[in-house]
Design goal:
The complex is a heterotetramer, with 2 copies of chain A (147 residues) and 2 copies of chain B (117 residues). Chain A is an alpha+beta fold and 147 residues long. Chain A contains 4 helices and 5 strands; from the N terminus they run E-H-H-E-E-H-H-E-E. In chain A, 33% of the residues lie in helices and 29% in strands. Chain B is an alpha/beta fold and 117 residues long. Chain B has one domain: 2-Layer Sandwich (Transcription Regulator spoIIAA), CATH 3.30.750. A 5-stranded mixed beta sheet of chain B has the order 1-2-3-4-5, with helices on both faces. The complex binds adenosine-5'-diphosphate (2 copies).
Chain lengths: 147, 117, 147, 117
């Protein structure tokens, strides 16, 4: 897959950066004339992945490093990779189930991965306990947009 | 994210505005609970009309408030959810614990109707 | 200097990324309640530095990598570093003179560094011919902003 | 960045809108020159009223158009520059080659006045 444009971003595991990551994704993706819905879908999925890295990966510690990569292919595919070096996930299949959460059940709904899957065309989760997690989100933009 | 409150009878109306994510949910969660207790409210309307972005952190906020309101034997209802927010709430099964209305006015009417029964 | 928040961004030397880099800087800096003028000053200086990396550093080749770092200190200092691995600058003092340009004189005004200096509180230029250039831009935000 | 044109007598008015940087300058430069030739204009007004961002690439655009217009013995004038754009143009000494007016209307008047002389 050849990318026509690509950026890499490194940020700290501070919750302020959730909004920042969404803005960056919106600014990058805007180059490719997405619809308002496509842009919102992408922002929502990224928000889930970054929040997960902060809350679960780094367990609310603010000095973790989160990497985000966003790339676009000539065929209108937006590929986003969110990576943390946090605690990792023991059972990925279970983690992806709707309503499953290891977080504070008063705060977390266990719907993060379900939302990502619903709003993106593909979600790949790779994780090693003790080493970290890497979530790949793929969205195929509507070709009629003049891509 | 901003929040303003209004009290009608024993109904607290919390009008959320801006972006509702994990970061902003931390603050508004406390603000809602604190105001709910201070005003001795029984019922709660969460208005989403002015919410410009929401992810699953919004679902967490609603579930937490549901438990709070239920402890007062009150009701939680939602108003002004966009099609987009609706999709997330529906996915999470939120409408089985809290009904949604197009506007706050209709939400108030519905709460009053139930009390009248 | 301890940073309260910091991001690192890597992008390609494509001119579309000038606007993108400005958006990223605006999204990051907005966390610290800058005035509209301060935000515009920062966006302008960054635009000059990124354009220079693309036009001069990588001589309009689109596959160069530009690194941008933005950090904020508790005292309200915004520190931006723009780095390229391009051709570098032979004579930095001369390059910083107003109206000096090695670019196409129909297109480039030679005012890039002058604009950066005028809009920022400090501009540091480090460069090695054949290795690349690193521009550090510092802006002290107005403390009365509630920083 | 967008650009729209208007022709009054032998004056081409180019109304720029959006963000003027190195990237966008590449396109509008050509568009202005092409339109200037096609309409056989002699004078050029560059309107900055709708420009929301500009860096020194804007200075380059003006200098290049100045050379173009001068080759037709015409005049280049600017209109609607914000205080911010003004600061950059002033720094670059642009006002020694092109006068600036608050509005396009005043720019047209000034060009006509000069012709009348
Ligand atoms: N980056 C991550 N690092 C470690 N664990 C994670 C990460 N992302 C998700 N998880 C695990 O997967 C579970 C389900 O995640 P998700 O579906 O997003 O729901 P929620 O965030 O509401 O818990 C989390 O509770 C957590 O145990
Ligand atoms: N990143 C860079 N890499 C190589 N040369 C550079 C770089 N930035 C600036 N220069 C040199 O410094 C000169 C002056 O730059 P500047 O003041 O920004 O004006 P301009 O970009 O209009 O030429 C350039 O013409 C170029 O020779």
């Amino acid at each position: 897959m050849e990318y026509i444009n690509q950026i890499k971003l490194e940020m700290r595991s501070k919750s302020e950066n959730e909004a920042f990551a969404r803005s960056v994704a919106a600014a990058f993706t805007s180059q490719f004339d997405p619809t308002v819905e496509e842009l919102t879908d992408i922002k929502t999925a990224i928000s889930e992945a970054i929040s997960n890295a902060i809350i679960h990966g780094y367990q609310d510690k603010v000095d973790g490093i989160i990497k985000m990569e966003i790339a676009a292919t000539a065929s209108g595919r937006i590929v986003i990779i969110v990576e943390d070096k946090g605690v990792g996930i023991e059972d990925i299949d279970k983690a992806r189930e709707p309503l499953f959460t290891t977080g504070n059940s008063e705060e977390r709904s266990g719907m993060g991965f379900t939302v990502m899957e619903s709003f993106m065309d593909k979600v790949i989760v790779e994780s090693t306990p003790g080493e970290g997690t890497r979530v790949t989100l793929i969205k195929v933009l509507d070709q009629t947009n003049g891509f | 994210m901003g929040i303003t409150f209004e009290m009608i009878d024993d109904i607290l109306i919390a009008v959320l505005s801006g972006e509702l994510d994990h970061h902003s949910s931390l603050e508004i969660r406390e603000e809602i609970d604190h105001t709910f207790d201070a005003f001795q409210a029984n019922n709660l309307i969460l208005s989403f009309e002015k919410v410009t972005f929401m992810d699953s952190a919004g679902v967490g906020v609603i579930m937490g408030r549901y438990n709070k309101v239920r402890s007062k034997n009150g009701k939680l209802v939602l108003s002004g959810c966009s099609e987009y927010i609706d999709r997330i709430l529906d996915m999470a099964g939120i409408y089985t614990i809290a009904k949604g209305y197009p506007s706050t006015k209709e939400a108030i009417k519905a709460l009053r109707r139930e009390k009248g029964e």
